[in-house]
Write a structure and sequence with these properties.
By secondary structure, this protein is an alpha/beta fold. It folds into two domains: about 140 residues, Rossmann fold; about 210 residues, Orthogonal Bundle (Rna Polymerase Sigma Factor, Chain: A), CATH 1.10.1740.10. It has 17 helices and twelve strands. It has a seven-stranded parallel β-sheet with strand order 4-3-2-1-5-6-7, sandwiched between helices. Helix 4 packs parallel to helix 5, helix 5 runs parallel beside helix 6 and helix 6 packs across helix 15. The longest helix is centred in the last third of the chain and has 24 residues. About 50% of the residues are buried. Bound molecules: magnesium ion. Magnesium ion binds next to helix 7.
């Protein structure tokens, strides 16, 4: 039996994790499930996986959660203390799937508690990658890459020795605007930006996929996970989302990780701890798919990817700054306050501002969070000044 705790149990990765766990009840015990504020969704998940504890980050929903779990015998709680209690319950693997910078503290707490981390929270590596990996090394904690691209790379790495790797490539579907003109993107609504062609995910990551910022964040993630230099990491647009990552070897050989786009596959690979478990999907049928196509990413139409690459190259606190500005900009876009193309502008301004500060890479989670807060304030101020001047022409909201 492997004991598992799921952070971010009500999100899309959390739901896929619950599905894998309920398929293998003989193999997994679920120590705790943690959600944000949706009491009924968390209660449903807790019942489905027979969790031994359930916690919501939002303390005000603790009563609703308790009611929703009435009769199940599953104890529950709300607020920061309850989340920490969940993290500290004995478990071998913690699935870290809380989205955004909000996942930093609980993910780090799980790391400090010595758990193996099945890592879906990109921000732990993007905002505080050096601190996070140093801590993991010090504690001997295993980081299991759960993001589909990094999971594919991890699998491909099994084909050779780490010192023989010369480069890695991660693929991007290209998102809903892969072939769109800048004019079309300028008037894109949140609903259009969230219509992802191959994956079904939350709104923030959908927008990041539409701007290709998601791929930029994943390059930073790959840099920390696999220790490759920025110029050894590349992105390839691959609309079918079948090949997820490629490892290039010294002799010219390439090992690729393929799978249908179904998050249950990387989740099962992580939770299996070396064993391969049925994940619930069908077998990959390449003849039915017919063609796998690849294109270079267009950094002119997708400036967020270029900004992320620059932040990775420049190092220091630049990825932390990039991520904070992007979270503010995407929230403003989803709220109808700025247009789709303005997201990159907000991020670029923040990066220019940040570059002048020359901050070192955060050496702790606390330092990363302090930088994150300062950048958010700066970006919110900038957006408030903008909305004073009225909306840009041509902006529409969903
Ligand atoms: Mg991914």
């Amino acid at each position: 039996m492997t004991t598992v705790t799921v952070l971010g149990a009500t999100g899309s990765v959390g739901a896929s994790t619950a599905d894998v766990l309920s398929r293998h009840r003989d193999r997994f015990r679920v120590a705790a499930v943690v959600g944000g504020r949706d009491a009924s969704a968390l209660a449903r998940t807790a019942r489905a996986v027979r969790a031994e504890f359930a916690a919501l980050a939002d303390e005000r929903q603790a009563g609703a959660l308790k009611d929703a779990l009435a009769g199940t015998g599953i104890p529950s709680g709300g607020g920061e203390g309850a989340v920490l209690e969940a993290v500290n319950r004995p478990a071998e693997v913690v699935v870290a799937a809380i989205g955004g910078v909000a996942g930093l503290v609980p993910t780090h707490a799980a790391l400090k508690a010595g758990r193996s981390i099945a890592l879906a929270n990109k921000e732990s590596l993007v905002c505080a990658g050096e601190a996070f990996m140093t801590e993991a090394k010090r504690l001997g904690a295993r980081i299991l890459p759960l993001d589909s691209e990094h999971n594919a790379l991890q699998q491909a790495l099994g084909a050779g020795k780490t010192e023989d790797v010369v480069a890695m490539t991660i693929t991007a579907s290209g998102g809903p605007f892969r072939t769109a003109t800048r004019e079309k993107m300028a008037s894109a609504t949140p609903a259009e930006a969230c219509a992802h062609p191959t994956w079904s995910m939350g709104a923030k990551i959908n927008v990041d996929s539409a701007t290709l910022m998601n791929k930029g964040l994943e390059l930073v993630e790959a840099h920390h996970l696999f220790g490759l230099a920025p110029n050894q990491l590349d992105v390839l647009v691959h609309p079918q989302s079948i090949v997820h990552g490629l490892v290039h070897w010294r002799d010219g050989g390439v090992t690729a990780g393929l799978a249908v786009p179904d998050m249950r596959i990387p989740i099962a690979q992580c939770l299996g701890l070396g064993a391969r478990l049925p994940a619930g999907g069908g077998r990959l049928d390449l003849a039915a798919i017919g063609q796998l196509t690849f294109e270079r990413a267009d950094e002119e139409r997708f400036p967020c990817l270029a900004l992320a690459r620059a932040a990775l190259r420049d190092g220091g606190a630049m990825p932390t700054i990039l991520n904070a500005a992007n979270e503010v900009a995407v929230a403003a876009f989803l709220a109808g306050r700025i247009g789709f193309l303005e997201i990159a502008g907000v991020v670029e301004n923040a990066c220019r501002w940040g570059a002048a500060r020359n901050w070192k890479a955060p050496s702790s989670i606390e330092e990363a969070l302090a930088i994150d807060r300062e950048v958010r304030h700066r970006c919110s101020d900038e957006l408030a000044r903008r909305s004073f001047a009225g909306p840009e022409p041509g902006r529409r909201t969903a």
